[in-house]
Amino acid sequence: NNDIAIRYRTNAQSRVFEEYLRRYNIPYRVFGGQSFYQRKEIKDMLAYLRLVINPKDEEALRRVLNYPRRGIGKTTIEKLSLLAEQSGKPMWECIPVAQASARAKNSMIDFVQMIKAAAKKSETSDAYEVAIQIARKSGLYDLMKADTSIEGMSRLENLNALLDGIKTFVEENASAEETDRSLAAYIQNIALLTDFDENTDQDNYVTLMSVHAAKGLEYKSIFVVGLEEKLFPSFMSMDTMEGMDEERRLFYVAITRAEQFLTLSYAESRFQYGNMRFNAPSRFLTEIPEPSLNMPAQARSKDPVFKPTGPTTASIKGNFKRRPSANNMPLKVDPKNFKPSPSSDIQAGMKVLHMKFGEGKVLSVDGGTANRVATIYFKEVEDDPQKRIMLKFAKLQIL
Questions:
Q1: Weakest mean pLDDT among 179-188, 232-241, 294-303
Q2: C-beta separation of 22 from 36 below 8 A
Q3: Which candidate, 47, 229, 227, places its Cα nearest to that of 138?
Q4: Could you report how far apart the first and last alpha carbons of the chain are, in Å?
Q5: Most confident of 146-155, 319-328, 374-383
Q6: Residue 46: in which H helix or E strand, if any?
Q7: Residue 233 preceded by cis peptide, ω within 30
Q8: N vs C: which end of the chain shows fewer Cβ within 10 Å?
Q9: What structural domains and CATH numbers belong to the chain?
Q10: Tens of pLDDT along 31-41?
Q11: Are 233 and 31 in contact (CB under 8 A)?
Q12: Cα–Cα distance for residue pair 64/43, rounded to 1 Å
């Protein structure tokens, strides 16, 4: 029977579990949603990447030629398709001679140049670098980032999860000199996963679901994963008591639906926005009475045969010792040499300087003009180096 469930805070987290379940041929289903690789934004991004590798992929070309919209209508695409059929050539090769309005013609030329530029880059760059270029140059990333609805934010999370998966692929293959980290190798690697269909006809399968979908569903064994600060609880809910109360309620529902076995886990680090992020365990772990937890001791050997992944009581408590506030931290920068930059100039990818946190890298910038919030990784801060800072109150110098 379907006695096992994996529960997570955001749907984007299903990717890594789906990939491993597929690799080991373990049947599963995603409850209350689509499989990761069946989600529209994932199919769109992969179509672009397939096109970079093979411009003659007509299924991919039809999917993204006018997505995001660039003024190439259905009539133009139909004419292009007819021309290809009559000439016996691929649609891609017919674009330069296709009949279309001036706007559509220019858009198609720009599209071709974008794909060719990415193909050229793929000759000397790894899969992640090419994917990032496509995500931004195509307009996919900006389109999703502009949609501030719950659904829009979820789509952006999915896109970022895919990009993080590509980064993981590159890093996992970085140790061996002869290992192929190219976009072509990634597409070949992912093909088997994207062709896999959920098989729920069998009696035994693992159920994947978000904690929002949990409700009254009970299972003999439940895994609640991703129990990290800023993930569960979500960073978007940590600023208010109401938000934290809702996060705590979701956690309670998630853990109280296990009939026999409950496993709680967190990742010590994970790729996010292309960078390795080190995580503190969720505060919710410390709220569970110690006698109720069975935590394996951390392996002491540097190279053990078996290394338990669960945190010890001491490690959990250590992560939640009272941290010094920024006001009590010593200055890392001489005020005489510090020249704050306009907050409106701060953008993702920049290196910045903070008087007390030191040098940092801006991972992302969210919010409207008046309430922009930056996520910054400060390399000189040992405890909780990743911080979210409201820019209108911050003093940062662009390096």
A1: 294-303
A2: no
A3: 47
A4: 58
A5: 146-155
A6: helix 40-53
A7: yes
A8: N
A9: 4-35+198-319 (3.40.50.300), 37-192 (1.10.486.10), 326-398 (2.30.30)
A10: 988 899 999 99
A11: no
A12: 10
Instruction: Name the amino acid, one letter, at 258.
Output: A
Cα–Cα dist 134/255, whole Å: 40
Supply φ then ψ for residue 201, to 5 degrees: -75, -25
Q: Which amino acid is at 177?
A: E
Q: What are the tokens at 47?
A: 């179509």
Tokens read off for 35? 């499989």
Asked if the peptide bond before residue 311 counts as cis, ω within 30 degrees of 0, the response is no
114 vs 229: CA distance, rounded Å: 38
Per-residue model confidence (pLDDT) at position 177: 59
Contact (Cβ atoms closer than 8 angstroms) between residue 326 and residue 389: no
Give the 3-state secondary structure of residue 268: coil
Task: Say if CB 71 and CB 107 are below 8 A apart.
Answer: yes
- Give the strand order in the sheet containing 258-264: 28-30, 206-210, 4-8, 219-224, 258-264
Return the number of other C-beta atoms located less than 10 Å from residue 335's C-beta. Answer: 7
pLDDT digits (tens, 9 = 90+) for 344-370: 889 988 999 988 888 889 988 876 666
β-bridge pairing 351-354 and 358-366: antiparallel
State both tokens at 233. 């609880």
Overall size of the chain counted in residues: 399
Helix (H, G, I), strand (E, B) or coil at 294: coil
Report angle CA 368, 370, 374 to the nearest 5 degrees. 65
Q: Report the helix count and the strand count for the chain, using DSSP H and E.
A: 13, 12
